[in-house]
């Protein structure tokens, strides 16, 4: 006498197929995750075309888990401006946080920086981004770079932002 009838064996076969597909999917997802979360560029020394060796300058430390390597407050800059540093994982949402460039109250550009490694951590994660104004900025113009931490909740107590005074070249 068979243990399972034809209907049960058909259901068992379908269940095995679904489980096999799920296992294959999760295996491929884990392989992709291990590849994407690995070191992106072990030789990245945060240099830019305008400043060939910025890695030797100390980062500017802001409270609340943000360190800015380039540009530093008071720097004379040119565009496109490369922004690099490190931030704790809570600054990011989906691996990014916002940048804005102002001349006084006038918004000149918006952009973002992206985490260079896995960002869902309480530790520091390196970031890099680029911002470029929509119009020409005259030489010696006083500018403000705004770094704004991600706040998907919209709650005021979760807002984080810092201003960096700069001068255009």
From TrEMBL:
Which InterPro entries would you find in this protein's record?
Answer: Gmad2_Ig-like_dom
Q: Where is the composition biased (Polar residues)?
A: 45-54
Pfam families referenced in this protein's UniProt entry, alphabetically: Gmad2
Q: Which residue ranges does the record assign to the Bacterial spore germination immunoglobulin-like domain? A: 68-144
Tell me which domain of life the UniProt entry assigns to the organism this sequence originates from. Answer: Bacteria
Transmembrane stretches in the record are none
- Region: Disordered, residue numbers: 45-67
Q: What's the protein called, per UniProt?
A: Immunoglobulin-like protein involved in spore germination
Q: Which organism is it from?
A: Marinoscillum furvescens DSM 4134
């Amino acid at each position: 006498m068979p243990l399972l009838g034809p209907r049960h064996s058909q259901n068992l076969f379908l269940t095995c197929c679904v489980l096999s597909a799920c296992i294959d999917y999760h295996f491929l997802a884990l392989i992709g995750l291990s590849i994407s979360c690995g070191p992106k560029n072990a030789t990245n020394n945060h240099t830019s075309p305008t400043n060939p060796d910025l890695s030797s300058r100390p980062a500017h430390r802001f409270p609340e888990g943000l360190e800015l390597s380039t540009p530093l407050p008071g720097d004379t800059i040119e565009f496109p401006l490369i922004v690099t540093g490190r931030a704790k994982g809570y600054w990011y949402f989906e691996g990014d946080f916002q940048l804005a460039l102002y001349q006084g109250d006038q918004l000149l550009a918006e952009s973002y920086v992206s985490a260079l490694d896995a960002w869902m951590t309480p530790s520091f994660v390196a970031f890099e981004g680029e911002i470029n104004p929509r119009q020409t900025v005259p030489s010696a113009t006083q500018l403000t770079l705004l770094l704004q931490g991600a706040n998907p909740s919209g709650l005021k107590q979760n807002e984080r932002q810092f201003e960096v005074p700069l001068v255009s070249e």
